[in-house]
Amino acid sequence: MSSTSPSGVGIAHLPNQKHKIISKKGAHYTLMVCGESGLGKTTFINTLFATTIKDSRLPEKRFAKQLDKTVEIEVTKAELEEKLFKIKLSIIDTPGFGDYVNNRDSWIPIVDFIDDQHENYMRQEQQPTRHGKIDMRVHACLYFIRPTGHSLKPLDIEVMKRLGSRVNLIPVIAKADTLTPKDLAKFKENVREVIQQYNISVYACAVDSDDEDTTARNQNIVDASPYAVIGSTEIINIDGKQVRGREYSWGVAEVENDDHCDFKKLRNLLIRTHMLDLISSTEEMHYEHYRQQQMANRKFGEPKVPRTKKVENPKLREKEEELRKSFTEKVRDEESRFRQWEQQLIQERNRLNKDLESQHAHIKHLESELDNLYQHGRSGSMRR
Ligand code: GDP
Q: Which residues in the chain come in under a pLDDT of 50?
């Protein structure tokens, strides 16, 4: 099933050389949404489809195992077509993430899914006939952040770090309509700071271009990150104008209004201006990184080395090494302090023993003096 977007998907505006890559291969383009459940991921996908594509294929379901529980990975497919250029768009929803009481490991199936797509592609590339490859590599992963007004949670930081090292990670602030503009601006700032502080690698598109307008537009897109979004399946009538939004007693939070949220900027980035950059950076950076890492760690034909369990984050390993070093130093210091103390105790004991001996000798001397006196006393009284 294919359709043409109301405003055009922008493929026809791509530079010539890039055109060829897309049109010849009929590019696959895969987006993924993840984050805690209830943050509006499914609504966002529906909003994106509804405002971009007239028609889409029904969701396909895949299952990834998380211990004995199941995380459902749902794929919605559509074809974008513009002036003979075709893009096979898949959007992957991960509704199970963060649902469990013990949700520390709930991100593993998501990270494994991303790695598995690289693995599948790599295996197909190693086959004698390499055309007709199935490509489900994830080109962008939208990470939904709960609009708490504070900052990222430790679990967000951990998961975002893992995702950022293997995919183009795009942070998204969910339900922007639940924060006041002032709180939203502050929250964005906090999230940006934490991303920097923890060295989380997020997608950064190139800003500079030969054309001033394009540079300004790119800068505008970069500055808006993390993207605050409002999702809605409702169309509301405002003074005869039909808008997509969420209706409140105080008014309407509009999805496609730049003063209300960054939905349009994010959609532009994903579907128009930076789609090709997301595709090529996945190929050149993330897939290449996976391929090289696997090549270095296994022989041809061997199964994949699980990166989620065995290959740790080098930064964490560095930190662990630092901790181990400082622990060893502390133990060494304590040991030498203990030895000195032990020496002092031995010296003190010797001193006390000597003291005791001299006291003992003194007592003996006094006792013999006493004996003498006693002897003298007795012989004197006998003489009388
Ligand atoms: P998911 O579990 O992340 O896929 O979340 P859903 O898309 O199922 O949405 C969960 C609830 O949040 C639903 O009741 C939605 O109507 C609501 N919701 C979705 N997007 C928004 C939003 O932008 N703002 C607000 N206020 N609610 C939203």
A: 1-7, 16-17, 19-21, 55-58, 63-70, 100-101, 310-311
Q: Give the Cβ contact number of residue 197 at 10 Å.
A: 11
Between CA 324 and CA 203 the distance in angstroms is 33
Backbone angles phi, psi at 138, to 5 degrees: -85, 120
Does the beta carbon of 177 lie inside 6 Å of ligand 1? yes
Sorted by where each begins, the domain ranges of the chain are: 22-297, 311-384
Q: What is the pTM of this model?
A: 0.73
| Nearest residue to 170 (alpha-carbon basis) of 147, 208, 204 | 204
Atom of ligand 1 nearest to the CA of 261: 23
Residue 43 Cβ < 6 Å to ligand 1: yes
Query: Ligand 1: which of 42, 43, 51, 262 to mutate, judged by most atoms within 8 Å of the beta carbon?
Result: 43
pLDDT tens for each residue of 363-374: 999 999 999 988
What is the reported pLDDT for 95? 59
Confirm or reject: Cβ of 230 under 6 Å from ligand 1.
Answer: yes
Architecture of domain 22-297: 3-Layer(aba) Sandwich (3.40)
- List of residues 6+ apart from 93 with CB closer than 8 A: 33, 41, 42, 45, 59, 73, 74, 75, 76
Q: Residues 189-247: pLDDT tens digits?
A: 999 999 999 999 999 887 888 888 888 888 888 899 999 999 998 999 988 999 999 99
**Which numbered atom of ligand 1 lies nearest the CA of 231?**
23
